[in-house]
Design brief:
The complex is a heterodimer of chains A (951) and B (185).
Chain A: H1 2-14, E1 31-33, E2 39-47, E3 57-62, E4 66-70, E5 77-82, E6 95-98, E7 105-109, E8 112-116, E9 123-128, E10 132-139, E11 154-160, E12 164-169, E13 176-182, E14 187-193, E15 198-205, E16 211-218, E17 225-231, E18 243-246, E19 254-258, E20 264-269, E21 275-279, E22 288-294, E23 304-311, E24 314-322, E25 329-339, E26 343-349, E27 352-358, E28 362-367, E29 373-378, E30 387-397, E31 400-409, E32 413-418, E33 421-427, E34 433-438, H2 442-456, H3 459-473, H4 477-493, E35 508-513, E36 517-522, E37 528-534, E38 543-549, E39 552-557, E40 562-566, E41 572-576, E42 583-590, E43 596-603, E44 618-622, E45 628-632, E46 641-643, E47 649-656, E48 667-669, E49 675-677, E50 684-691, E51 696-703, E52 709-716, E53 725-729, E54 732-742, E55 747-759, E56 775-776, E57 786-794, E58 800-803, E59 814-819, E60 824-829, H5 845-850, E61 876-883, E62 890-896, E63 899-904, H6 919-950
Antiparallel strand pairs in A: 1-63, 2-3, 3-4, 4-5, 6-7, 7-8, 8-9, 10-11, 11-12, 12-13, 14-15, 15-16, 16-17, 18-19, 19-20, 20-21, 22-23, 23-24, 24-25, 26-27, 27-28, 28-29, 30-31, 31-32, 32-33, 34-35, 35-36, 36-37, 38-39, 39-40, 40-41, 42-43, 44-45, 45-46, 47-50, 48-49, 50-51, 51-52, 53-54, 54-55, ...
Helix pairs in contact in A: 2-3
Chain B: H1 13-19, H2 27-31, H3 40-90, H4 96-114, H5 116-119, H6 129-156, E1 175-176, E2 180-183
Helix pairs in contact in B: 3-4, 3-6, 4-6
Classes of the chains: A mainly beta (951), B mainly alpha (185).
Chain lengths: 951, 185
């Protein structure tokens, strides 16, 4: 019977189309945070990609070199492009430019320039400046007579070793239209343009110190120099960063800088020689920390600009007007000093310029022409997290205005505030997740504790305890009864899949990111962030482990410090200061039920920092120089064993079976009902070692207690620069690599996936040397496993492997593989990866009954296996799995760059009522039958009585 | 009992006339020809035969009973070929028909064995009692053969826990005496 069950499960797993994810399950069982990273302040903007539609998208180039478009309505990612692979020097900040009604955004990082379609993100052209890095980029807003219809041209400034090159690139092809070379040795700085001219701004080193600003005016059609001006700014401009602003694409582009004491502001209208000095009227009493200029980026916009002065405690702003005729700059009005952080943004409707100011409490819109407030909204949820920068889009309706602002906050939240209300929040701070774990809630602990108490008492005592517990539980009865109608209604109206939260499907995940932040994500609520805290002030948080115990999670860093947070609120419970030893790993002495007991840090040389006094287990560590060491937990002086791979080989990875890895059946039933017994040993270690000289990869299966090598295999022709992933679970292990085998027997070139199963004996019905012994010692007699292996050619590389975990391990397992080149996560059913599949022949009846089918060397990834289906899940570093109370269902959480979570049902959801099951129909049928019976019963009774009388 | 035993009452007239031979027909009556097809001799013979059978009665009925008993004892064996073919043809898959047939196959012999005495009750006389014992044994053997057929079928269907895999769930994983903890990253 077991055989048949297995066969049924197998068929369910791989033959029925139901193993795939249905379209109505998308966004229902899974969630995806498609992240971009921190949007950079000067490369983020609202843009209408199409001239025919008024809809705009929010574009950005992030610090992670991701170009993306976000729908401002719901914060969903429309498209994104990762250019970090194309960029040779990621140290440079990127540039992204776009124009309204122009279906192209142009971005540049380092020497790389590319243009993407603004609507769908398709690459229009790519270009590489061979001379140097791109210093600035502008799109020519005005179409000239020579330009053909289509996308506007780009002006790029390339800074090479000794010269600055200004280039006009064709908008459709990216080809150079003209080029202007400045060989004077100035520092190429920026480019700007007005309706008639292109300005190349460079910084000329002054005699003693500082820079003079040199403006070269170029003809936009030919690129020839028309005139040149040098502004005497050397006393103020010490570094290129001293120039506050260079306006672009505006009727009167300006250059703004301030003197060193920040008393006066110097403004030059580009193309003129005059420099207007404006006194800074600092009434706040404290030092100005930052000056930012916000000006419209449109040719037809009024030449007004806003200067934002920020001090430590508050901010104010001044609005200036430029006279187009005389090129005079005059102060128009001032936005008053307000305590707290303010962010400003400029936006344009037709020719009118609007400035939006968002403080911690309110959002205000003013017109550039006068200081009258056009709109003011209180922020619904004032945030304690200070805003860094924002972009705004203003819509005017008669006299009233509406505004939406995309605000980037210090802690990585990108929020859209529409008229004071938060429309959506993108948690871009999640992008560099380095570690994650499933949280344990305290409520479970209470029940577990009670059950434990009951388990240890006498029968009578336990009974009393239980009765008392249930009486105590009665206090929840009124609430439960109150909820009952709602629950019944909702369970009838909605399908089963939607409310499985009581089956452990809704779990919290604690995620730690590289920049010291900790988030809690709720998998039951589409991965919504329940809280996010700044646990550590750092930019390089090297988290070694996160351990969840009921109610709290402790995050261990490599410097020996740890932070314990409350998983429900995010409050920091306790903190351990860093010690002087650098840690390589954290050893966890876990109890059988997975609740962590004690931890011991392991130094980089593989030596535990302290000896655990209470534990009498064994400890296996790796050292940074590629050794695997075995210790008795009580002794951290001398290792019990040491595994050093043969010379030339370097240990790159070591894996062990997951902590929760239940085995439902200890043997494998063959077609003739005999049993192949699985080699089950929880202490197995799979060590991957590579030899870069001879291009081999060796895989060693060790016993973690004795250090004995149980199995070793070497693959030749391995490219060690490609990812080598490995996993071990139950009685099998798998690994993948890129191999180029050219032998007499077989030759294979490409990615390979090798699976090996361990059995106690090659013979069926044989339990090997130990036979029916109930326990064994690794140090005494440890028999070697019988290993059956098979290799498959796979279409692409696997960067990480994991295995689905279910409550009892009855459900077939899936091998969870992260595919970095197609940005997806795949779950390969284990029956497909069976090394016992018959080679070069069809299976016999007995084998077919076992679920084996003919071996094919090429394993094509079936579309149904893709857990991430059509989603583009990028940059995944690790995948976690967790059992739920439903045996069929395993929770999956992937993190790295993106965050992705879903549920896997490798043998279908056999313990859940499907969507086709209509509870309403069932209830109605029962009701109808009941009604029928109540109506018919008296009639029948009367008939029977009448029949008796008649007889 | 104290009463003196009364002499048996005289047999009724009809008994007397039944037992006594037919009175010789009168002359006039004998002159009447017999109806066509009637032979007075035959009647005589029959009477004689009757007379004979009544005289042979206990032995012959016993033999007859034994013969009948043997027929009943052997009867199940006649079903064996048919059942075997049916069982062979019905296949080893678990279907409602094959299961029903197997159940019938079990029900028949088991009921037969339980009702052995009832089946031979008709032939049970003090004289045949000892001889019926062997017949019953043969009968039971035949039923057992049928039962074996059923068991063979059940085994072929894989319902008997005869293989190692059937006991796999009762075997437990060997527990290691030592437990290792891992610290990799």
């Amino acid at each position: 019977m077991k055989m048949r069950l297995q066969a049924a499960l197998f068929f369910a797993a791989c033959l029925l189309p139901a193993a795939a994810i249905y379209s109505d399950e998308v966004n229902h069982i899974d969630f995806h945070h498609a992240l971009l990273g921190n949007p950079s302040p000067d490369s983020t903007f609202f843009l209408k990609p199409s001239s025919s539609s008024n809809a705009s998208l929010l574009y950005t180039l992030s610090d992670k070199m991701l170009v993306g478009a976000v729908n401002p309505r719901d914060g969903a990612l429309v498209w994104r492009q990762n250019i970090s692979r194309s960029v040779d020097s990621p140290a440079h900040a990127g540039l992204l430019r776009g124009l309204d009604g122009n279906d192209a955004v142009v971005g540049a990082v380092g020497s790389y320039i590319a243009s993407w379609s603004a609507q769908d993100g398709k690459v229009a052209w790519e270009n590489r400046a061979s001379e140097g890095v791109v210093a600035d980029l502008e799109l020519l807003e005005l179409e000239d007579a020579t330009a053909t219809s289509g996308v506007r041209d780009t002006i790029a400034v390339v800074a090479s070793e000794d010269a600055g090159i200004v280039r006009r690139l064709d908008g459709n092809t990216g080809k150079t239209v003209w080029e202007y070379k400045d060989t004077s040795g100035d520092v190429p700085f920026q480019v700007s343009s007005s309706s008639t001219e292109v300005f190349y701004i460079s910084l000329q080193s002054a005699m003693l110190k500082g820079f003079k600003i040199k403006v070269t005016v170029l003809d936009p059609l030919s690129g020839r120099q028309t005139r040149q001006q040098i502004l005497n700014s050397e006393t103020d401009v010490a570094t290129p960063d001293s120039v506050l602003y260079v306006g672009a694409n505006s009727a009167s582009p300006i250059i703004v800088w301030a003197d060193k004491s920040q008393k006066t502001l110097k403004v030059n209208v580009i193309g003129t020689k005059e420099v207007t000095s404006l006194a800074i009227d600092n009434t706040s009493g404290s030092e100005i920390r930052q000056i930012t200029v916000h000006a419209p980026h449109k040719l037809n916009a009024l030449p007004h600009f806003l200067v934002h002065f920020a001090t430590e405690a508050g901010a104010w702003a001044e609005v200036y007007h430029v006279d187009l005729m005389s090129a005079k700059v005059t102060k128009a009005y001032q936005l008053p000093y307000l305590p707290g952080q303010s962010v400003f943004a400029a936006s344009v409707i037709d020719a009118n310029v609007y400035f939006t100011r968002i403080t911690d409490l309110e959002a205000v819109v003013v017109s550039s022409a006068s200081h009258g407030i056009m709109g003011r909204w209180d922020l619904q949820k004032p945030s304690s997290d200070s805003a860094l920068h924002s972009v705004s889009e203003v819509v005017s309706k008669g006299k009233s205005v509406a505004v939406r602002s995309a605000l980037f906050r210090k802690h990585g939240d990108w929020q859209l505030i529409r008229n004071g209300q938060i429309e959506w929040t993108r948690h871009e701070g999640l992008i560099d997740a380095v570690a994650a774990t499933w949280a344990e809630t305290a409520a479970q602990e209470d029940l577990a504790h009670e059950l434990e108490v009951e388990g240890h008492e006498t029968l009578y005592g336990a009974y009393l305890h239980r009765v008392k517990r249930h009486i105590r539980d009665l206090e929840h009865l009124p609430d439960w009864l109150k909820d009952l109608p709602k629950r019944i209604l909702s369970s009838i109206l909605t399908d089963e899949v939607s409310n499985l939260d009581s089956f452990g499907v809704a779990k919290s995940v604690i995620v730690a990111t590289k920049n010291g932040r900790v988030y809690s994500l709720d998998t039951g609520n589409h991965g919504a962030v329940s809280w996010g805290i700044q646990a550590v002030e750092t930019s390089q948080w090297n988290v070694k482990a996160i351990l969840a115990s009921p109610g709290v999670a402790t995050i261990y860093s490599n410097d020996g410090s740890s932070v314990t947070v409350d998983v429900s609120t995010g409050d920091i419970v306790s903190r351990i200061e860093p010690s002087n030893s650098k840690l390589h790993a954290i050893a966890v002495f876990a109890a059988q039920d997975g609740i962590a007991l004690a931890t011991v840090g392991v130094r980089e040389d593989g030596i535990p920092v302290t000896a655990s006094a209470s534990e009498d287990g064994f400890l296996v560590t790796t050292s940074i120089d590629g050794r695997v060491l075995g210790w008795v937990a009580k002794d951290n002086k001398t290792p019990v064993w040491e595994f050093v791979p043969p010379s030339g080989q370097k240990v790159v990875e070591a894996t062990a079976r997951p902590a929760h890895d239940p085995v439902a059946s200890i043997g494998r039933v063959l077609g003739n009902r005999s049993v192949l017994y699985k080699y089950l040993n929880p202490n197995l270690v799979l060590v991957t070692a590579v030899n870069e000289q001879t291009h081999t990869a060796s895989f060693y299966l060790l016993d973690g207690v004795s250090g004995k090598v149980l199995h070793a295999t070497t693959q030749v022709g391995v490219d060690s620069t490609q990812p080598i992933a490995s996993v071990i679970s139950e009685n099998w292990f798998a690994y993948s690599f890129w191999g180029d085998v050219d032998g007499s027997e077989s030759s294979a070139k490409g990615y390979q996936l090798v699976i090996s199963e361990l059995y106690e004996s090659p013979l069926p019905n044989d339990r090997g040397l130990l036979d029916s012994a109930t326990n064994y010692s690794s140090t005494a007699t440890l028999p070697l496993p019988h290993v059956i292996s098979q290799a498959f050619m796979i279409p692409e590389s696997i960067s990480h492997m994991a295995v689905t975990q279910t409550r009892q391990g009855i459900t077939t397992r899936q091998l969870l593989c992260t595919l970095p080149s197609s940005n997806s996560i795949i779950g390969i059913p284990r029956p497909v990866l069976d090394p016992r599949r018959p080679v070069d022949r069809d299976p016999t009846t007995a084998e077919a009954e076992e679920g084996l089918f003919r071996y094919t060397p090429y394993l094509d990834f079936d579309g149904k296996w893709y857990l991430s289906h059509t989603r583009d899940v990028a940059g995944i570093k690790a995948v976690l799995s967790r059992p739920t109370l439903l045996e069929s269902t395993s929770l999956i959480f992937a993190y790295g760059s993106d965050i992705y979570g879903t549920r896997a049902t490798p043998s279908q959801a056999f313990d859940i009522l499907g969507k086709s099951f209509s509870k309403l129909q069932l209830v109605l049928t029962v009701v109808a039958l009941g009604a029928g019976v109540t109506v018919l019963a008296p009639m029948t009774r009367r008939k029977q009585v009448n029949a008796l009388w008649r007889a | 009992m104290s009463q003196a035993r009364l002499p048996p009452p005289p047999p009724p007239q009809w008994v007397v006339s039944l037992n006594s031979p037919m009175p010789r027909p009168s002359k006039a009556a004998s002159s009447i020809p017999d109806p066509p097809g009637f032979s007075s001799r035959g009647g005589k013979q029959r009477q004689q035969q009757q007379q004979q059978s009544t005289t042979k009665k206990p032995d012959e009925t016993d033999a007859l009973k034994m013969k009948k008993a043997w027929e009943i004892a052997i009867a199940p064996s006649k079903q064996i070929p048919m059942n075997a073919i049916m069982m062979y043809m019905s296949g080893n898959s678990l279907q409602i028909f094959s299961i029903m047939m197997v159940l019938m196959l079990f029900k028949g012999p088991i009921q037969g064995i339980i009702n052995t005495n009832a089946a031979f009750a008709k032939y049970e006389t003090p004289s045949t009692h000892s001889r019926l014992l062997g017949v019953k044994v043969v009968y039971m053997l035949m039923q057992l053969v049928l039962l074996c057929l059923g068991i063979w079928k059940v085994n072929a269907m894989g319902l008997l826990p005869t293989t190692r895999s059937d006991w796999l769930a009762w075997e437990s994983e060997r527990q290691p005496l030592e437990r290792a903890h891992f610290a990799f990253r």
